[in-house]
């Protein structure tokens, strides 16, 4: 049993009572909603004649189905239009703030919460979206829920939960050049497995984590769920507070900032906190990671050979064989040189300003390989505007990237942005499941934004550290 | 669904259907393009769609297509079933196809929670027992299987094997308290007090007391 961790501290402060099932009724401090998983929950509420209990602690945006090219209404896709209209009606009826595309605040739900300062340390945060774990980067207890639980949260402001175990994952040392937060989390999932975190919350700690900015921490917490952990978090520190200070929530309210900072400090894991277990990973040994298969756990360092299925533990062998067949890769080879057709820079994992900056740095002065369809989908309208203010859009456009509007886009292909046929995609997103990017024969290779940029210009999976210097004319 | 006490689910009986493989994610169970809907009605026909049909909508080999399994209601799976997206559309699609219980080696957490919210038990067995049950179901598609949630056993043919049902899940199903909305709504005052005790919640964000 853990004791004195941030998870325990936040849990205790939000526990209302024990339910007859033995579960805890947990107060939810922030409920984020979007168009895909909320309409059915609002429908259930209407059926029972219930109202939204905490509309002012509920915040909506639209991300999964929004087109990223032509966003004029009604949307070309009538199903998307229906979902959008339904959400508009629901938020209007319930008095919920809605960051729709006309506000300039719209974006992927896990990008807009942090950028507006809605996401804060010591909160309980839920959303009908498994990547809600992202918000744990701020020291919040944040996790994805299903639609029936959305109904519960809408109707009561609470959710029924069992307490989980806490695993501390300490990433020591310093990352080498060309290695990013994405490579850390892909390494963690590879080592602990896609089901290693079931029943656990992950606390990410150690010098390699603490030296990351908030965006990097978000990339890591984001993919906790790919490792089976419903939630992951980083203890709040000066990096966290610096970010929050400049958000809408606090920039004109330093007093409130100071008051809450006392609370944020109080929920940090105690020095002598007890964990259910501790895993240590040497951050300095991590190299850029790419996936070779169809689960996020099937990753390797760029210089490493794809494993023989027989060399893996028995329960992983069949999945590996299936994956290698789908991806058309052979054990013993590296992923370097694997041809790609599409480069996707986007998603709640890696579509924030530093992600775009780092990729632009690689792209600058280069051209997208003629065989590659490349696109950038910023995580939010604000990210897009900030990137444009720096001229990043020009760098991408000049190189041959499509510069799009904000949304989930090709991470899951619920809008028009989809793979076609058996296209291979170098993707900064989070899931390489078969069919994930909109085509059941599509092939996804997960990697960092830097590696996506490198693959876009060479047309194949490439070690970004080995790209030749651009010789300026 | 009513606001009253939920149904008691002590056991599920019926015939089985095996879906083999580890790490079967919710994108497989219901591809995202079928989620462009505002209700869950009609999702049943899209369960495992891309595994069941090719580009021309011709049937592929998949248990969900096979005639002998069309009346099955107990799904037998392997490791880490239901991983990935939190979409409740996945268990909704399975339930609307006809599934009432899932037996497997292990389940992703959000998926198991979503199943519980629908009154669908997710019971775990050893790898050996999962594979044996899958083989039995293949051989005997019409044979009855009993999933006893209360006693934590699965009985098929002349065999009874021990299974594990998560404590809270077992209690919720057996006592019929898996529909948590009414249960938690009854504690509205305590919830309000809890909200007020949190430094980040402002007074105007806490709803006023209403006479229910």
TrEMBL record, chain B:
* EC number(s) recorded for this UniProt protein: 4.2.1.33
The GO cellular component terms are: 3-isopropylmalate dehydratase complex
Q: What residues does the Aconitase A/isopropylmalate dehydratase small subunit swivel domain cover?
A: 10-127
What keywords sit in the KW lines? Amino-acid biosynthesis, Branched-chain amino acid biosynthesis, Leucine biosynthesis, Lyase
Kindly state which reaction or reactions the protein catalyses: (2R,3S)-3-isopropylmalate = (2S)-2-isopropylmalate
A single MF term (Gene Ontology)? 3-isopropylmalate dehydratase activity
Is Amino-acid biosynthesis found in the keyword set?
A: yes
UniProt cross-references to InterPro entries, sorted A to Z: 3-IsopropMal_deHydase_ssu (IPR004431), Aconitase/3IPM_dehydase_swvl (IPR015928), AconitaseA/IPMdHydase_ssu_swvl (IPR000573), IPMI_Swivel (IPR033940), LeuD (IPR050075)
Q: Does the keyword Lyase apply?
A: yes
What pathway annotation does it carry? Amino-acid biosynthesis; L-leucine biosynthesis; L-leucine from 3-methyl-2-oxobutanoate: step 2/4
Q: Which GO terms describe its biological process?
A: L-leucine biosynthetic process
Query: Entry's PANTHER family?
Result: 3-ISOPROPYLMALATE DEHYDRATASE SMALL SUBUNIT (PTHR43345:SF5), 3-ISOPROPYLMALATE DEHYDRATASE SMALL SUBUNIT 2-RELATED-RELATED (PTHR43345)
Q: How does it assemble?
A: Heterodimer of LeuC and LeuD.
Function of the protein: Catalyzes the isomerization between 2-isopropylmalate and 3-isopropylmalate, via the formation of 2-isopropylmaleate.
Family of the protein in this entry = Belongs to the LeuD family. LeuD type 2 subfamily.
Protein name as annotated: 3-isopropylmalate dehydratase
Lineage, broadest ranks: Archaea, Methanobacteriati, Methanobacteriota, Stenosarchaea group, Halobacteria
Tell me the gene name. Answer: leuD
């Amino acid at each position: 049993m853990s004791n004195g961790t941030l998870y325990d501290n936040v849990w205790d402060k939000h526990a209302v009572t024990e339910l007859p099932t033995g579960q805890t009724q947990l107060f939810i401090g922030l409920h984020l909603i979007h168009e895909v998983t909320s309409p059915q929950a609002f429908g259930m509420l209407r059926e029972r004649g219930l109202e939204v209990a905490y509309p002012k602690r509920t915040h909506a945006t639209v991300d999964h189905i929004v087109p990223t090219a032509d966003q004029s209404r009604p949307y070309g896709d009538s199903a998307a239009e229906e979902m959008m209209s339904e959400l508009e009606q629901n938020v209007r009826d319930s008095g919920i703030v809605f960051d729709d595309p006309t506000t300039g605040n719209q974006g992927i739900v896990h990008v807009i919460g942090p950028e507006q300062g809605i996401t804060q340390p010591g909160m309980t945060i839920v959303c009908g979206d498994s990547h809600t774990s992202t918000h744990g980067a701020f020291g919040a207890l944040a996790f994805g829920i299903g639609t029936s639980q959305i109904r519960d949260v809408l109707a009561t402001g609470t959710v029924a939960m069992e307490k989980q175990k806490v695993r501390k994952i300490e990433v020591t040392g310093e990352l080498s050049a060309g290695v990013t937060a994405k490579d850390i989390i892909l390494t963690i999932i590879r080592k602990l497995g896609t089901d290693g975190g079931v029943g656990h919350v992950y606390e990410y700690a150690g010098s390699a984590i603490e030296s990351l900015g908030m965006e990097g921490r978000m990339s890591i917490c984001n993919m906790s769920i790919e490792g089976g952990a419903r939630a992951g978090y980083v203890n709040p520190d000066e990096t966290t507070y610096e970010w929050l200070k400049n958000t809408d929530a606090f920039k004109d309210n330093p007093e409130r900032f100071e008051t809450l900072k006392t609370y944020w400090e109080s929920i940090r894991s105690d020095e002598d906190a007890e964990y259910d277990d501790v895993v240590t990973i040497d951050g300095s040994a991590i190299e850029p990671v790419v996936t070779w298969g169809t689960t996020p756990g099937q990753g390797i360092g760029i210089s490493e050979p794809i494993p023989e299925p027989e060399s893996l533990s028995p329960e992983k062998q069949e999945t590996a064989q299936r994956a290698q067949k789908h991806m058309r890769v052979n054990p013993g080879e590296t992923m370097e040189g694997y041809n790609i057709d599409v480069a996707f820079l986007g998603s709640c994992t890696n579509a924030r300003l530093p992600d775009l900056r780092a990729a632009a740095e690689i792209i600058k002065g280069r051209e997208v390989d003629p065989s590659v369809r490349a696109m950038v989908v910023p995580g939010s309208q604000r990210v897009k505007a900030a990137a444009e203010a720096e001229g990043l859009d020009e760098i991408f456009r000049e190189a041959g990237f499509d510069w799009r509007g904000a949304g989930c886009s090709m991470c899951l292909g619920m809008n028009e942005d989809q793979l076609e046929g058996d296209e291979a995609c170098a993707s900064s997103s989070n899931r390489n499941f078969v069919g994930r990017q909109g085509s059941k024969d599509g092939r996804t290779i997960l990697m960092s934004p830097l590696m996506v940029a490198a693959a876009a210009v060479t047309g194949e999976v490439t070690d970004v550290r080995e790209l030749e210097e651009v010789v300026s004319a | 669904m009513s606001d009253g006490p939920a149904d008691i689910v002590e056991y599920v009986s019926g015939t089985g259907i095996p879906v083999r493989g580890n790490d079967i994610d919710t994108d497989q169970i219901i591809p995202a393009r079928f989620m462009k809907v505002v209700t869950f009605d009609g999702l049943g026909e899209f369960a495992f769609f891309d595994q069941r049909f090719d580009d021309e909508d011709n049937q592929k080999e998949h248990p969900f297509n096979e005639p002998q399994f069309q009346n099955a209601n107990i799904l037998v799976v392997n490791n880490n079933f239901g991983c990935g997206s939190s979409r409740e559309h996945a268990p909704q699609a399975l339930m609307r196809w006809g599934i009432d219980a899932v037996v497997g080696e292990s389940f992703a957490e959000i998926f198991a929670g979503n199943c519980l919210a629908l009154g669908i038990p997710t019971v775990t067995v050893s790898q050996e027992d999962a594979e044996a049950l899958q083989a039995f179901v293949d051989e005997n598609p019409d044979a009855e299987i009993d999933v006893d949630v209360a006693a934590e056993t699965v009985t098929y043919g002349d065999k009874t094997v021990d299974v594990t049902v998560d404590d809270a899940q077992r209690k919720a199903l057996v006592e019929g308290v898996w529909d948590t909305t009414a249960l938690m709504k009854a504690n509205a005052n305590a919830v309000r007090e809890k909200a007020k005790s949190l430094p980040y919640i402002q007074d105007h964000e806490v709803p006023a007391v209403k006479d229910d």
